[in-house]
Design a protein that fits this description.
Elements (H helix, E strand, L loop, with lengths): L31 H14 L4 E6 L8 E6 L31 H8 L4
Antiparallel strand pairs: 1-2
Length: 112
């Protein structure tokens, strides 16, 4: 533990280290994954166990995120899931044993 300048420092432990980076929008298209992979490797060498990547896809209202283990996970593995917002006319129940047909149709419309 680094010296914090007060006697009680021996009672303080690091609970979480967080690093926030902003990537320029000028990064050439298609180079994002390589850059994330380089940052993941750098973060691991700096003692960061995990990192969270956040991004906002064009045409969506909510940002997406993926959490990566800096020691094990290839950065690309975290991005193979697809998340989209869908709108339905009928309100969905909080708890149900059946998935709404309207929701299924809305989701199917986004499948490739």
């Amino acid at each position: 533990m680094e010296k914090l300048g007060f006697d009680e420092a021996k009672f303080v432990m690091t609970a979480r280290r967080q690093l926030s980076l902003s990537i320029s929008k000028d990064l050439p298209e298609g180079e994002g994954l390589d850059l994330v992979q380089k940052i993941r490797l750098w973060g691991n060498k700096q003692g960061y166990e995990t990192m969270r990547i956040r991004w906002k896809d064009p045409g969506t209202t909510r940002p997406q995120s993926a959490k990566l283990d800096t020691a094990k996970q290839d950065a690309g593995e975290a991005f193979f899931t697809k998340t989209v917002e869908v709108n339905v006319k009928r309100e969905l129940a909080d708890i149900s044993d059946k998935i709404s047909d309207e929701l299924i149709a809305a989701m199917a419309g986004h499948m490739v």
